[in-house]
Amino acid sequence: MPPDIPPQAAPANAPAEARQTALDLLANRPQATLTTLVAGSSDDAAAMVGWPYPSLVLVALDGGGRPLLLLSELALHTRNLRQDGRAALLFEDTAGRENPLTGPRLSVMGRAEALGGDEAEAARAVYLDRHPGAALYADFPDFRFWRMDITQAHLVAGFGRIHWLSAADLAV
What we know:
Elements: H1 16-28, E1 31-37, E2 52-58, E3 60-61, E4 67-72, H2 76-83, E5 86-92, E6 105-114, H3 117-130, E7 143-156, E8 162-166, H4 167-170
Antiparallel strand pairs: 1-2, 1-5, 3-4, 4-7, 5-6, 6-7, 7-8
């Protein structure tokens, strides 16, 4: 594993238009691509230790604008997060465009942690309000609620409209 080098924080106060585009993507996209780092294991993934692993997840936001996830302990991305909480979420609004690269996308980077107790109950209420269908499996014993504490984000709002945003820029 590479050393855990702390990121250089992006300065707060991104341009208002960039901040609003990022907040709109977070609030309006119910799913994202979650990227984790493959952890050591005894299964077929062992050959890929340390490599990025993308997967599709449903997302809700807590009252502070932090992403909430409902993940199975059986999933590779969850096993990866248990070993190394660094993760990224890609939110995008590119469907239906003649050139998808003209659509906005937001890469949110941070650390994910499993929630317990009152925090898990609060996350459950918010998450199931956003994704009522998840009630079918939310109480399965292998599912846990997770929250990502955002470190910073990278917004590509179209050609030449690129901004780094701080966690403070994304706080609601």
